[in-house]
Design brief:
Elements (H helix, E strand, L loop, with lengths): L35 H17 L2 H6 L7 E3 L9 E7 L5 E14 L3 E3 L19 E2 L1 E7 L5 E7 H14 L20 E3 L2
Parallel strand pairs: 4-8
Antiparallel strand pairs: 1-2, 2-3, 3-6, 4-5, 6-7
């Protein structure tokens, strides 16, 4: 029985930090349709993201704001994540993905000029993280139904960051080692 039931409040003490082996291992596929325990865990993870973006609750529970959270970031070897974000057009998105997989992507790349952050990384890491501008992702929702989404811009960046987590890849591993601010020819800043 997982501790991440519907009324458990995830705080920063539950977030696994860099250096922990689970962040560098590819995660295990989740049973579909998901178990009640997995559904409750995902709901708990989504609540964390919403709480972390709420000025009152983030202060009360001392949370760092996050837009995505993967199961391995709370110590679970499961291929699932949640994301809660507002894109560059001001549209709010709520994603819950089980066994996600990028099935196609653009040639063009984008990056966040301020770099990327991560709840599992306590230091500020400088450098550009090139990501596909557009992706098509296939996976399953909470009901166990297959979903296929086409994403672009900021949503695409966040989802790629989370899928990387599930594959055991940290965002800073995508930064050019010799020259952190050097980008491929076809990359442009998002904002």
């Amino acid at each position: 029985m997982s501790k991440f039931h519907s009324n458990y409040i995830i705080t920063m003490k539950d977030i696994v930090r860099e250096g922990n082996e689970i962040l560098h291992l590819p995660t295990q596929k989740v049973m579909v349709p998901p178990s009640e325990e997995d559904k409750e865990t995902l709901a708990c993870m989504m609540n964390f993201l919403k709480n972390s973006q709420d000025s009152y609750l983030s202060k009360k529970y001392r949370l760092r704001a996050g837009v995505g959270l993967s199961a391995n970031q709370i110590g679970l070897n499961k291929r699932m994540f949640v994301a809660y974000l507002t894109d560059e057009k001001g549209i709010e998105h709520e994603f819950t993905f089980i066994n996600p997989k990028i099935i196609s992507h653009s040639v063009s790349l984008i990056y966040l000029p301020q770099s990327e952050g991560c709840l599992s990384v306590d230091q500020d890491i400088k450098g550009f993280v090139p990501r596909y501008e557009r992706i098509k992702v296939k996976g399953f929702n909470l009901e166990g139904e297959e979903i296929v989404l086409k994403l672009s811009g900021y949503s695409s960046i966040v989802i790629q960051h989370e899928i990387d987590h599930l594959n055991g890849i940290m965002f800073y591993e995508r930064i050019n080692k010799e020259s952190p601010f050097k980008l491929p020819e076809n990359a442009k800043g998002l904002y």
